[in-house]
Amino acid sequence: MEHSKKTTIHDIAERLNVTASTVSRALNGNPRISDNTRKAVLKAARELDYEPNQIASALRSGRTQLIGMLVPTINRAFFSSIIRGVEEVANSLDYRVIVSQSNEIFENEENAVKAFLNARVDGIIASIGKNTEHFNHYKQVLDRGLPLVLFDRTTPKLQTGQVVIDDYQGAYMATTHLIEQGCERIVHFTSERKIDIYKERYRGYVNALQDHGIEPNHSLVFSGNLQLEDGRKHAEQLIQGKVDFDAIFSASDYAAMGAMQVLKENGLKVPDDVALVGFLNEPFTSFTDPPLTSVNQFPIEMGQTAANLFFNALNSDKKKIIPKKTVIQPELIVRASSLRTAP
Amino acid sequence: MEHSKKTTIHDIAERLNVTASTVSRALNGNPRISDNTRKAVLKAARELDYEPNQIASALRSGRTQLIGMLVPTINRAFFSSIIRGVEEVANSLDYRVIVSQSNEIFENEENAVKAFLNARVDGIIASIGKNTEHFNHYKQVLDRGLPLVLFDRTTPKLQTGQVVIDDYQGAYMATTHLIEQGCERIVHFTSERKIDIYKERYRGYVNALQDHGIEPNHSLVFSGNLQLEDGRKHAEQLIQGKVDFDAIFSASDYAAMGAMQVLKENGLKVPDDVALVGFLNEPFTSFTDPPLTSVNQFPIEMGQTAANLFFNALNSDKKKIIPKKTVIQPELIVRASSLRTAP
DNA sequence: TTGTACGCGTTATCAA
DNA sequence: TTGATAACGCGTACAA
Fold first, then answer.
1. Does B81 contact A at CB distance below 8 Å?
2. Burial, B156: exposed, middle or buried (Cβ in 10 Å; 0-12, 13-18, 19+)?
3. Contact B148, B309 (CB under 8 A)
4. Residue A222 belongs to what H/E stretch?
């Protein structure tokens, strides 16, 4: 069977003895049209199985109904959840999402943005790569008057919409929680990279200590890549160095997990000997033994927020976009790894 | 600053005193053009900062360089990894991926496919929803001569490219492994749903038992939703019913995890009292205590394979697409939950 | 090797 | 309220 030629607005126009412009107006809800013709057009469209050609529409109108979305890694729970949030909002507004990943490589990031522009997306939602220091590709987006929303990994160098969580607050809550559990010598795992989010978590840790009358101790702060192996290494150093500590607040669940393994291997009880708190609320945190207390970043909500900022920008007068920064409040999810039995 | 009008092939043509068609040919690697003009065009294009308008190109050529990708849930490790695999291959061939999720709702699935068609994607890669029983929306895709590749959740009712893993083989390996560890009364957790993949895993379990001279015992098979809670329930039944068993092979890591929790709560040792094997190789499996043996489905490779099938179909003579089914061999990843110390 | 001419399907502008 | 016409930017017969 030959697949029949797709029907266009001209086919509908011909059948109704009107012109294509009339059909177009009827289909787009243009008010300057009579009720009768509108109904006739819609009926004919249904009967002829008409499907609008968005490409033609995009060429003419300049709007593709596409959002370019760039993440470092698609298959990480945090990012895929953000994509999910964006997709939900976008779909409900009849927009589609194109995803690309940078794998933290600057060149990929540049190329992805360029590809998005070639595809004539209506705007971009992105998290910038760890190694990104130049922002010309993003500036091009803004120069073209397209909405750009950054999430999680942002930069003050771009005047545009941003969505982040309050890392300071998350760390402050985590540290305070440990103090309230009776911990006094609290270790912190942080990152070597001078990224804002880790600096903020460190600041939250320090301030929580000070606010509770505990003097921060530099020898309790460990810097690394925050992966599982780093957590293991730090914990081994703590044990071998016979450091006196009763809790660990790690800026990443992975490093916390590594520490938990080493602690248990050395016969230390979590949480009674060492209480443990991570950050990210990765899905695995509820499956560890004991389950790991962590800081929830609400990634789906973060994606929804980013999408909302995006559409606000899209619908506002282009010359009056006020770069808006939305800060999401994190939540401490207390699990057994930090809950001490009352003394 | 006004953002300057985007340059088109006409701008390049004007500058070089040639026509737009010449420029188009030069840009597209058409051989019917002199070396000199080609170089001149490329040079001018660079100088004028020319960026091709893919929308115009798509309207004219009928190819959008877009793939529609439909998954049940974006933020699950298995699916996001598949998206990653598809994205990698697609990007390398200058294609982009539009993602949508069905959330296992049939209507969403239909709408997503329709939206993809309206966006004039060059084809679709999809995993069908659990509750999908009609396939007209997919048939439309095929009727239009567009490539369609199904992965993981497929159906014999559609004559098109498919990528699945060998569920039978995965289950067979898992069960055999448990037998080799000395287990003889092996419980199986399966799904109530009559989906092929669970039937295959059940078949692999049964055949492995029989091939090793163990008679399958119906009272050791538990059917549910394979979520964590189901695993807990099954394990509680096993213990309360004083069932004699020494291993569990679960068709899902989540149910295996639930069972592990209950076993430990009841003082049973994993793996020495009960050896445990899951299925999916979810990221959390390496973080449980003990780490959970599981069956790896190679999701990234699955995505790459799906993308390769897609591009093969795209580039082949449309009338001669041979519906090809690719079966990926899974891998048993042995971790401590099933490794018994030698007796 | 290059130019001419047209069309892809839609929307915007202007006129009626 | 509707029609006629052009244009969005590109690719491709066909002719030269």
1. yes
2. exposed
3. no
4. strand A221-224
* CATH label of the domain that carries residue B83: 3.40.50.2300
Strands B331-333 and B294-296 turn out to be antiparallel
Taking the model in full, what pTM does it have?
0.93
Using a CB–CB cutoff of 8 Å, tell me whether B55 touches chain A: yes
Q: How many CA atoms lie within 13 A of B237 on its CB side?
A: 14
The whole-angstrom separation of Cα B102 and Cα B118 is 17
User: Could you tell me if A261 and A306 lie in one domain?
Assistant: no
Tell whether A173 and A160 lie within a shared domain: no
**Where are the strands (E) in A236-312, listed by range?**
247-250, 275-277, 294-296
B295 backbone dihedrals φ, ψ, rounded to 5°: -105, 120
Q: Give me B64's structure tokens.
A: 């959008």
Q: CA at A183, C1' at C1: how many angstroms apart? A: 82
Domain count, chain B: 3
Asked if A286 and A214 sit in the same domain, the reply is yes
Residue A337 lies in a domain: no
Task: Assess contact for B224 and B255: CB atoms under 8 A.
Answer: yes
CATH of the domain at A29: 1.10.260.40
Q: Which residues contact A112 (CB under 8 A, 6 or more apart)?
A: A68, A70, A100, A101, A102, B91
Same domain, A269 and A307: no
Of the CA atoms within 13 Å of residue A327, those in its CB half-sphere come to 7
Q: What is the rounded distance in angstroms from the CA atom of residue B22 to the CA atom of residue B122?
A: 27
Range of the domain at B113: 61-165+299-328
Q: What is the pLDDT along chain B (343 residues), one digit of tens a residue?
A: 334 568 999 999 999 999 999 999 999 888 888 889 999 999 999 999 999 999 999 999 999 999 999 999 999 999 999 999 999 999 999 999 999 999 999 999 999 999 999 999 999 999 998 888 899 999 999 988 899 999 998 888 999 999 999 999 999 999 999 999 999 999 999 998 767 889 999 999 999 999 999 999 999 999 999 999 999 999 999 999 999 999 999 999 999 999 999 999 999 999 999 999 999 999 999 999 999 999 999 999 999 999 999 999 998 866 556 678 999 999 999 999 999 875 5
Interchain pair B283, A288: CB under 8 A: no
Residue in A59, A98, A264 closest to B55 by CB: A59
From the list A1, A77, A84, which residue is nearest B101 (CB)? A84
**In terms of domains, do B190 and B223 share one?**
yes
My answer on whether A125 and A179 are in the same domain is no
My answer on whether A128 and A206 are in the same domain is no
Question: Could you tell me if residue A130 is inside a domain?
Answer: yes
Distance from CA of B48 to the nearest CA of A (A): 15
User: Alpha carbon of B272 to those of A208, B107, B186: distances in Å?
Assistant: 44, 47, 13
Verify that A122 and A268 share a domain, yes or no.
Answer: no
CA A327 to chain centre: 12
Residue A15 lies in a domain: yes
Which of B9, B53, B66, B74 best probes binding to A when mutated, by most A CB atoms within 10 angstroms?
B74
Distance in angstroms: CA B10, C1' C11:
22
Question: Per this entry, what is the length of chain A?
Answer: 343
Q: β-strands A275-277, A123-126: how paired? A: unpaired
Cα–Cα distance, B3 to B191 (Å, whole number): 58
Structural domain contains residue B258: yes
